[in-house]
Description:
The protein has 7 helices and 7 strands, in the order H-E-H-E-H-E-H-E-E-H-H-E-H-E. The chain has one domain: 2-enoyl-CoA Hydratase, Chain A, domain 1, CATH 3.90.226.10. It is an alpha/beta fold. Helices cover 44% and strands 18% of the residues. The chain is globular and about 55 Å long.
Amino acid sequence: MSGIKSMTRKFDESVIDAEDIINLGLLKEHTHMITGDINDETVDKAIRWLLYENMDTSNADKMLTLYINSTGGSLTDTFALIDIIKSSNFVVRTIAIGNVMSSAFLLFSAGDKGHRYVSKNTSGMCHQFSDSMDSKYHDIKSAMKESESLNERMIGVLVETTGLPRAKVRTKLLGPSDIYLSAEEMVEFGVADHILE
């Protein structure tokens, strides 16, 4: 993202409603929220926000804050957003509130180490990639190959973000059943760094 020219923010405040005012306030504080399903729409908004913040280099010391309250969604969309977070010129702080489950759990863990906060009443849940297949035999074989690839990428992200060895990620975070974690356990396993009191 280097080499992108700095931009000046200009808004016509006479044509905005209450939601726009809230979003403007969050933007001025370098903050974005993901709530509900993680899908192409929510990820598109988050990526646009990150790209915009990275084009605006007028404040070299700013920190970007991403609040997450989600039970998960599209894994491929999640990987797209993680890649943008990892390429950010600025620190991306993630804050988990309510639920961070499935792909949202993975997304939360991808915040910059030392800057991943979880509120004390947040529930975390991680599991292996799952998909329903209703197709022809050869299509099922191809889909199985992609599912295995996605699961390996999940393991790779969690190894990088938690510092746990692959074997421990498989048993403690990606076991055969859903694995639920408290805020304290998320810190213990290296998914989060701090608990918000």
